Amino acid sequence: MHLSPVSFISFAAVLTLVRGSPAELGERAAPVRGVKKAAVSTAPVLVKTYQGATFFDSWYWAEYSDPTHGSVNFVNQTYAKSHRMANAPVNGSVTISMDRFTNIPASATAQRNSIRISSLDSYNVGTLAIVDLAHIPYGPGVWPAFWMCGPNWPNSGEIDIVEQVNSVNTNQAALHTGPGCSFNASVPQAGTGSTHPNCDSSATGSGLGCSVSDPSDISFGKGFATHGGGVWATQWNSTGIFIYRWTRTAIPADITSGSPNPASWGVPFAAWSDSGCNYKTQFADMALVFDITLCGDWAGSPYVWPYSGAPSQYQTCQSAVGDPTLFTQAYFSVNYLKMYTVPI
Fold first, then answer.
1. How far apart are CA 293 and CA 159, in angstroms?
2. Is 63 a catalytic residue?
3. Distances (CA, A) of 72 to 20, 39, 111, 199, 296
């Protein structure tokens, strides 16, 4: 059967989204500073804002090899700020970027400097995360993500909120868990769920989870950037995990005012709910993560690279790593990230 580039990416993502061995993933988790407990309240209560000049004050900066085998070298905060990779102005968007300027000699082992940060605070059931992004990294070989991950992968869970590869314009969200969590296709959602219902990423050793693709071609990449970005809200309570997305011109007034009201948001683009999973036990002590890798198990896969906007002069993703002209758009622009507690 012939598959279009976009549909093939969604299929390949399910087959190739390798998260690394349990040993590797234990190493990448942030050391947690404290667990946020859900407050007893009928409305979301703001507990943390990551924004502006203090944005980078509460993060662990990875300095180890990418567990997804990307062609990157993760650097610390001092290096990133001095090399135009990280910027947190008093007023304006925060920049999280890979090295977009250096010409690197081509080789089978070439790596480009990049960033992977995990929050020092951790979060549990009864959490609402709202992130406003003006720009998401995209381009040949680029694999960015904004996600949440527990310390004992996959048994303490992973929630992929914003993720895709290369030049694809449709976002993909996913859950990764230990045994005992499955995708319920009957739950209303705007996105398209994967045909793989088992969220257990340890089942086959391949890192497979249960994913949902956003139907909008402005939910990622160039389309997202040219429309001014947008907002994602991820609600996690005992009934499930629900991810909502809005374009810049459609952000609800309750979010803009700082008084979010999830009951008014309608159908989420991704929903995992009901009896298929225990959302209190399968997800725990979750750190927030921003990272940008290059090539690796997904973006660099021979089943993905040729079908997702790869430049014709580069037959493999690795051969493109040295060319900085390909990575001009490989940066996050974050307006804010706000964390709330919600009724469990």
1. 18
2. no
3. 15, 40, 5, 28, 9
Question: What does pTM read for this prediction?
Answer: 0.89
3-class secondary-structure state, position 216: coil
- State residue 62 phi and psi, 5-degree precision: -70, 140
Q: Which of 24, 27, 63, 158 is catalytic?
A: 158
Q: Note down pLDDT in tens along the chain; length 344 residues.
A: 333 333 334 433 333 333 443 333 333 344 444 444 444 457 999 999 999 999 999 999 999 999 999 999 999 999 999 999 999 999 999 999 999 999 999 999 999 999 999 999 999 999 999 999 999 999 999 999 999 999 999 999 999 999 999 999 999 999 999 998 988 878 899 999 877 788 998 876 667 789 999 999 999 999 999 999 999 999 999 999 999 999 999 999 999 999 999 999 999 999 998 778 999 999 999 999 999 999 999 999 999 999 998 999 999 999 999 999 999 999 999 999 999 999 99
Closest by CA position to 174, among listed 145, 150, 203: 145
Burial 310-324, CB ≥16 within 10 A → b, else e:
beeebeebbbbbbbb
Query: Under a CB-based contact definition with an 8 Å cutoff, are residues 30 and 287 in contact?
Result: yes
Report the DSSP pairing between strands 127-135 and 121-123.
Answer: unpaired
Query: Whole-angstrom Cα distance, residue 91 to residue 93?
Result: 7
Query: What is the β-pairing status of strands 230-237 and 240-247?
Result: antiparallel
Tally DSSP H helices, then E strands, for the chain.
6, 20
Chain centroid to CA 337: how far? 13
| Sequence-separated (6 or more) residues with CB below 8 Å from residue 294 | 70, 71, 72, 98, 111, 112, 114, 141, 142, 143, 300, 317, 321
158 labelled catalytic: yes
Q: Which of 24, 27, 63, 163 is catalytic?
A: 163
Contact 195, 206 (CB under 8 A): no
55 phi/psi in degrees, rounded to 5: -55, -45
Q: How far apart are CA 262 and CA 251, in angstroms?
A: 12
